[in-house]
Structure prediction request, 136 residues.
Amino acid sequence: MIRLSDKITWFWGSITHEALIVSLGEMLSDKASLRKITAKGIHDFLGFQGKIILSSIMPDEILDSLTGRKYARLIRAVRPDAAMVLDCYTYIDDPLVISWKQLIKYVNNMVYTINNVDVPLLGIVKGRILVKFLGA
Prediction:
């Protein structure tokens, strides 16, 4: 994964790479960069013509501000070659009801995004202790 705000990580000048991963969280934390990226598209912004994958792994506070609709709109604006489904968070010490709400939100956002973007989506396997959900 490269840092969009740190050109020293843009290392592909003389090295051949088939793909890069970029962080949507970083873009959302820097509105000026997001405007530049959406104006040009991520390929032209980076000067990279290989495959670019958009990562949805980001701080919880940013995830809370996103919906499947907003995420699909951002994917269309950024124009990556592929994207992760929108991440969500669960924690082992959260009450079960919060974990289930997050899981349902995750599935709803994933379904919306699948139906509203034209790029391949990479699933994220959510880690969780089975006992918590089964109540055993």
About this structure: The radius of gyration is 16 Å.
